[in-house]
Design a protein that fits this description.
alpha+beta; 2 domains; 4-stranded mixed beta sheet; two-stranded antiparallel ribbon; 2 helices; about 30% strand
């Protein structure tokens, strides 16, 4: 089922309401760094409710340190700075 745009699967429980599921989604969102993509609700061995979830991927911006400055992208650089970055030696780490 879909609740609050989250794919929810309930196993072993028959009396879980949509409002309760919504609270579980809010709980996970409030206690993680991200947004819930899917949520599995099952019974735990001690009689409690067990939550398993997957978070939506977050956007990642690459930050580089060039000549002492932190920059995100090189799209606003002039040709000289782009050429300098292009000519740099790229080191790779080789494992034996």
């Amino acid at each position: 089922m879909i609740v609050k745009d989250v794919e929810v699967k309930v196993e072993g429980l028959t009396d879980v309401s949509a409002a309760e599921i919504s609270h579980y989604i809010d709980y996970v969102n409030d206690n993680t760094v991200g947004t819930v993509k899917s949520l599995d609700i099952t019974t735990a061995s001690d009689g409690e409710v067990a939550l398993s979830y997957e978070l939506k991927p977050q956007k990642f911006e690459r930050i580089r340190r060039i000549t002492g400055y932190l920059v995100g992208t090189t799209d606003r650089w002039n040709n000289a700075k782009r050429s300098e970055e292009h000519d740099r030696v790229k080191h790779t780490r080789e494992c034996a």
